[in-house]
Amino acid sequence: MANIKGIILDVDGVIVGEKIEFNSPYPHPDVIQTLKSLREKGIIISLCTAKPHYSIQKIITDAGLNNLHITNGGGVIIDPIHKVVLKKHVINKEDSIKIIEVYLKNNVYTEFYTVDDYFIQSNQASTITKIHMHILQRDPKIVASLIDEARKQEIVKIMPIAKDESDKQRLIQIFKPLENMATLSWGIHPIALPHLFAIITEKDISKKQAAMEIASEYSITPQELLGIGDSASDWQFIQSCGYAGAMGNSSNELKEKVLSKGDHGYIGKSVDKNGVIDIFKHFSV
Questions:
Q1: Which contacts qualify for 264-270: CB closer than 8 Å, 24 or more apart?
Q2: What domains are there in the chain, each with its CATH number?
Q3: Contact 244, 238 (CB under 8 A)
Q4: For the chain, which end, N or C, has fewer CB atoms within 10 Å of the first or last residue's CB respectively?
């Protein structure tokens, strides 16, 4: 029987899928009930997402996940139920302005995030804005100038959005001269494809780093953690966990890496078949 005391759980593509009203924008009721039962057993369940806390608040409340969660790609570690912010990693003001400026000049749809809000520039409002509103379950604050607004805010995440895989490579190249300022990672959401989300956080801040901070906070060793994700970038935090799970809808790259953990790795069914429950059962959590 696996000795699992904590679970680091990606959200989109793992417990939230693309079937509207089935598992989007919220998980299926069976998944919520399973999470609730595990938490009641004393297992720490930390949702791990590039989303802000308010976009996962209903999941946290319905499942009674009264512990710390990883939001904004590791930029904020928060327990919304107890209103505790353990860490808020604010990007340097001048660096954040420079990053936003460069992406806007390259005609890249760009959002930035504080702990409690997100902002877009009025002349960029488009179809992706509406898609992201469904994903985040909150309207953005629309401003005339993103740069002017950035001067007033404490920014924890900048999110340029690529149109597709090819455009993603362009956004990566744009970031190259900015690598000393911040950290770039990537996220996806099933209903937003082919769009891909760049996640820019303070230098050296990531989901992996946040997962280790949460483990330390609850006196859990990395070997006692189960990490579950669906994209290759999720290996960033899953690799450090003693146990690993991937969804049936995961990328082949992630599946291969998860299985490299031998008996401590498992592939469940797809998110649209509530595959996360398979993973919990496999490890007898």
A1: 264/2, 270/17
A2: 6-88+206-282 (3.40.50.1000), 93-202 (3.30.1240.10)
A3: yes
A4: N
